[in-house]
Every structure is written in structure tokens, then in C-alpha cells.
Amino acid sequence: MPVPPHAQVTVRAPAKINLGLSVGPPRPDGFHPLATVYQAVALYDDVTATLREDDADVTVEVLGDFADDVPTDDSNLAVRAARLLQSEYDVEEGVDLTIRKTIPVAGGMAGGSTDAAATLVACNRLWGLQLSQSDLERLAADLGSDVPFCLVGHTALGRGRGEQVTEVLSRGTFHWVFAIADGGLSTPAVFKELDRLRPLRRVEAPEVRPELLSALLSGQPAALAVALSNDMQDAALSLRPELAATLQFGLDQGALAAMISGSGPTCLFLAADSRSAVDLAVELSESGLCRMVRQAEGPVPGARILPAPISR
Ligand code: ATP
């Protein structure tokens, strides 16, 4: 039976990478202050929200490459996003969520956060809430540090825990290759390792490197390659030392830069152009060093409603 308009909404939401990730000393509340430059890349999860008119239940089904690694109970970030909207706006209807995952789970690419962002956008439309982008961004910040950026997308500066986002000017398109490792890394565990590795060092307030912002403005991959940085890399490598060989392999194959993505264990590589990205992806796939390889351009927009399929 065809579904009536707005009884079903699909939202496509991107993965993020951190082009610069500067981590300050832990705050009394345990969070680390960050200064980061995010970029949204064309690796997406699709979240379909289908209306439940007869009750207020929220269910979730997860499909795709990483489905087995994603919880389907109330700890799923998409479920939490739907429940937050229900409680804040006294919504009496429910929703069945289907997540088609292509973003690695616990891979340092904000997969869960982007599902939460997609769910906010989908349920806002499904339940006719008419919330503004700034309303959604406020709710997003309650759900997690990376969720506001996943709504906004493109390239942006993240402050606070990463949840205070402002757009950054970036020219052109960059070509990225991702080596997705077996297993994930828990973000809190990597922060803990970072604190263990630098307990006595005077840790400065987090800062974005000016050369990173000028590289983005120039649109030149070679300039961006030398401006990338990630304070969490040493901690991720300390927990997963074998990733160093993956990073080195990518550099040996001509990547302009190689870095751990966020808290890892995904390794990211900047290629000079789309052709070099394909070549690098092939070499990495054949190397046996990782579980799978993906290529994606950035920047791309944040969570967006997809046009409804045309039904006959
Ligand atoms: P970040 O880069 O934001 O630190 P990440 O990419 O490393 O996050 P996620 O893929 O968001 O990690 O997953 C972290 C944990 O969150 C997973 O181990 C999983 O148990 C849980 N989780 C909850 N909801 C989801 C979801 N919708 N998709 C993926 N993981 C989820």
C-alpha cells in the first residue's frame, strides 16, 4: 500500500572527519575542551522514519555493513534523539526508525552522532513540529558533542566540547581515502589514554592552527596536507599500535598526508586528486592491513531530507 505523504521521511547524514583536533586539559566535569575543524565527507548513513499513529513507541532497525555492532535498544543515539523530541514537545505519536549504515561504528567518524542528527531532522518533518535549525542545533548539543556539526555539515570550527559550531570558509573539494580497521575504539577510552600519556605535561588551551584555516581557503591539497593535526593520534596509536603500519603504507603509496580520524581507529589519507584516491584505495584494499577501504569527497552538507521515492 502506498504510504501517504509525510508518513515516511528519509534523511541522509554524513560522516565527519577532524582536520585539526586540539585537546585541552580535562575540565572539572570530565569533558575535554576542544578546538577542532570538522569536515563532513560523502560517506552517509540514511535514516528512514515511519510514522506510528497509534502509539508513542520508538523502534529501530539497523541494516548494512556494520549493523551487528549497533545497539537497537534505548541506547541507540537515533532512539535517544526521537525520545528527546517527544519529551520536549509533548509528541504523542511514535516512530519506526530504519538506519542504513555505511559509516563505520566506533570508527572516529561520528556515525552514531550523525544518526541522531538525521533523526532530529526526520522526526521534525514527520511529526510536523516546524522547529528551526537553531532549535534543532540546541537539542543536538544535548545529545552529543558531534551532533550539532552533523546537522550543519560542510567545514566548521567546533569549540567547547565540539558542540559550538561556526562555519569555516573552504574552497574546492578534497579527496579522502579511509582505511577502516577491524573493531572500534571507545572515544572515552582514547581520552583516558591521552590523559595517561601527558599527566605531567603542561597542556595548553586548545587552539586551531592558523595555517589550517589558510590551507582550507586556498583549496590546495598540498597546503592542507601539512596543516592537518590530531592530538588524539598518539593515544589511539598507543591503544592500537598496528595502525602505524597502515598510516605508513598510505604515505608510501603517495598519500599527501595520513592521520588517525578523530579518536580512531579509522585511518584517513588525503589524496592529491580523485584519480590518486582511487589508486590509493586499490593499494590499501590489497594490502590486507584493514577491514575495508572507502573513498569520499569533502566537504558536503549536513543532514538533509531526501526526496520521497516516486510510487506508481
Ligand atoms: P565519535 O567520532 O563521535 O567519537 P565514533 O564514530 O567513534 O564516534 P560511533 O560510531 O558514534 O563512534 O559509535 C560509538 C558507540 O555508540 C558504538 O560503540 C555504539 O555502541 C553506540 N551507538 C549508539 N547508537 C549508535 C548508532 N546509531 N550508530 C552507531 N553506534 C551507535
How would you describe the overall organization of this protein?
- The active site is at residues 16, 146.
- The strands form two sheets. Strands 1, 2, 3, 4, 5, 6, 8 and 12 form an eight-stranded mixed sheet that branches. A four-stranded antiparallel sheet has the order 9-10-7-11.
- It is globular and about 55 Å long.
- Helix 2 crosses helix 3 (133-143).
- It contains ten helices and twelve strands.
- It is α+β, with helices and mostly antiparallel strands and 312 residues long.
- 32% of the residues lie in helices and 28% in strands.
- The protein has two domains: 8-168, 2-Layer Sandwich (Ribosomal Protein S5, domain 2), CATH 3.30.230; 174-298, GHMP kinase, C-terminal domain (Alpha-Beta Plaits), CATH 3.30.70.
- The chain binds adenosine-5'-triphosphate.
- Adenosine-5'-triphosphate binds at residues 70-71, 75-78, 99, 105-113, 115, 146, 184, 187, 262-263.
How many angstroms separate the termini? 11 Å
Helix content: 25-40%
Radius of gyration: 19 Å
Tally of separate domains:
2
Write a brief caption for the model:
This protein is of the alpha+beta class and 312 residues long. The chain has two domains: 8-168, Ribosomal Protein S5, domain 2 (2-Layer Sandwich), CATH 3.30.230; 174-298, Alpha-Beta Plaits, CATH 3.30.70.
Task: Supply the key terms.
4-diphosphocytidyl-2-C-methyl-D-erythritol kinase, 312 residues, Ribosomal Protein S5, domain 2, GHMP_kinase_C_sf, 4-stranded antiparallel β-sheet, Alpha-Beta Plaits, alpha+beta, binds adenosine-5'-triphosphate
